[in-house]
């Protein structure tokens, strides 16, 4: 076999992608074992039946051929209206390209904002695909490390220093954040915006959890003064409308950037199936009530989880202000996040994600996805705390 490219063989730098606990838990389930899975951000409810009916009807009515590469006009217009209403920034369909989910949007924006060899900054902890996405674009990933003690908020001065040292062309942020649940406050966003302007950087803003805000307010950096022309926002129907498998997202960007992204889509995905786009349009037209209904269980479970964690000292809790996750500090056990997760799975068949799966800043932590029934979630957390306590007492 001829040699494969470095680009494809070094996406994970030849090492682990940190998801072994998840894969092992799924294997245990396949073997018939009862596992409480608190690993990935997959809704425990399916896509709303009305959306599926709309998708089915669109397919039966002939929307199964090639769709417009940048997205069907009604969907682009609806997305533009949604963005404008939520951010106050004038937005038209020319600022929108529909993508096959948020992940292709991440790749497209990194291909668009730098050339091979141009560094790309991202905040650590990070969504697991970020560094590999940058390597796929032949751009060296540079982590901006944070700390639990600072609620995993990025320091703009560090972003500035790393941008200069690396010659970066872009910085990627994610708020509300996966995996930490942190929502960036206004002063943090203002400081990051100043750095991008001072250093002439593109800002890529992953906002797929913008409907899951439990404390504070979500602010899109595109709405800050001087930022609309240097910001690319990634959105998705996956989290807001429980349409993870439908693979439909979007990029909101300056018109000239969207024109170039359309050229890229023409030679990659060639658009998103029309019947899926029409279903997405139907879902958006259902309004905020549908989105609120999908977010509400995660708000409730977050509150239940925090109540279950209250009053104990074995596990530290990182404030979760948004998204469908909780980040817990298990450093008191003396174990790494990965070792704790492996031991918990072995002892109690509870599957969580090691913090190390999301970067070095989250070492010694675990991430819990609030994606199972209330009683089962609370029981799992109580068991987890008791399990952590046995290590703390032994120490």
Would you spell out the secondary-structure blueprint of this structure?
Elements (H helix, E strand, L loop, with lengths): L5 H4 L10 H11 L5 E3 L10 H12 L12 H15 L8 E4 L2 H11 L7 E5 L5 H7 L4 E5 L10 H11 L3 E5 L11 H13 L3 E5 L24 E6 H4 L8 E4 L2 H12 L7 H12 L2 H22 L6 E2 L7 E5 L7 H12 L1 E5 L10 E5 L4 H21 L1
Parallel strand pairs: 1-11, 3-4, 3-5, 5-6, 6-7
Antiparallel strand pairs: 2-8, 7-8, 9-10, 10-12, 11-12
How helical, in percent, are the residues?
A: 40-55%
CATH topology of the largest domain: Aspartate Aminotransferase, domain 2
The biggest sheet amounts to: 7 strands, mixed
* Cα gyration radius (Å): 21 Å
Euclidean distance between termini CA atoms: 53 Å
Strand order of the largest sheet: 2-8-7-6-5-3-4
Number of helices: 14
Instruction: Note the overall shape.
Output: globular
**Structural class, from secondary structure content?**
alpha/beta
Q: Which H/E pattern describes the elements?
A: HHEHHEHEHEHEHEEHEHHHEEHEEH
Domain Aminotransferase class I/classII large: 33-380
Keywords: Aminotransferase, Pyridoxal phosphate, Pyruvate, Transferase
GO molecular function: L-aspartate:2-oxoglutarate aminotransferase activity; pyridoxal phosphate binding
Pfam family, one: Aminotran_1_2
